[in-house]
Amino acid sequence: MKDTHKILEQMRREPGSVRFADLCKVCKAHFGKPRQHGTSHVLFKTPWPGDPRINLQSDKGKAKACQVRQVLLALDKLERMRDEH
């Protein structure tokens, strides 16, 4: 099983070839347990106001590239917030 660091490298390098389970693993590591799961969508809450969620949906076991990019943007924002404090 890949660790989240290697998955993040793959996400940045090839957002269209990430497994859905790997994307969920990264989100769980950074945002905690999903708010919703067991349906076709998995929702993660982010710690900022506005649109504070990440909505993921599997595409035959693969993560959608647009959702991988959404998670990368959220992780970058989370990192900036940590640097400010």
Quickly describe the structure:
The chain is of the alpha+beta class and 85 residues long.
Describe this structure in words.
The structure is a single chain. By secondary structure, this protein is α+β, with helices and mostly antiparallel strands. The chain is built from three helices and three strands, in the order ααβββα. It has helices at 4-13, 20-31, 65-84, and strands at residues 41-45, 53-59, 62-63. Strands 1-2-3 form a three-stranded antiparallel sheet. A hairpin with a 7-residue loop joins β1 (41-45) and β2 (53-59). α1 packs across α2 (20-31). The radius of gyration is 12 Å and the shape is globular. The model has no long low-confidence stretch (mean pLDDT 90).
Which runs of at least 5 residues are low in confidence (pLDDT < 50)?
A: none
Q: Give, in spatial order, the strands making up the sheet with the most strands.
A: 1-2-3
Structure classification: alpha+beta
Whole-number mean pLDDT: 90
DSSP helix fraction: 40-55%
Total number of helical segments?
Answer: 3
The SSE order reads HHEEEH
Chain-wise SSE layout:
Layout: H1 4-13, H2 20-31, E1 41-45, E2 53-59, E3 62-63, H3 65-84
Antiparallel strand pairs: 1-2, 2-3
List keywords for this structure.
alpha+beta, 3 strands
